[in-house]
Amino acid sequence: MRTSAIIAMLALSGLINTPLQAGDAAAGASAYNAKGCVGCHGAAGKKPIANYPAIGGKPAEFISAELNKFRSGERNNPIMMPMAKGLNDADVANLAAYLAAQ
Ligand code: HEC
User: d(Cα 57, Cα 54) in Å, to the nearest integer?
Assistant: First the structure.
């Protein structure tokens, strides 16, 4: 098989990652409910309670960047920091993929 065909197959199968870790939207959907995000940000991130931000449909790069800022404490928020500290890198990528697809 020619090298270019192999590279194309790897790219399609997701084995060659873009700089941003490619997330699994289905796993993100489960995590979104299991980790309680839905309780504040609402169904699909689009029906938040109170004046909390709607996050469904925002770019994956934005979601993962903001979650990582909450994890590191660079973005200081007493509600979101404990939520984000319970996430690992895969959770962040999966949640970002799920939310961006809403
Ligand atoms: C108890 C309520 C609550 C829960 C649960 C919660 N969030 Fe949040 N979230 C907030 C609030 C409030 C903000 C706004 C924080 C601020 O003003 O800095 C926010 C902000 C965010 C932002 C940044 C949005 C923006 O426009 O800047 C993202 C992304 C986010 N949350 C994702 C999540 C994810 C993913 C989960 C589940 C792991 C989650 N949140 C769970 C309340 C919550």
Answer: 9
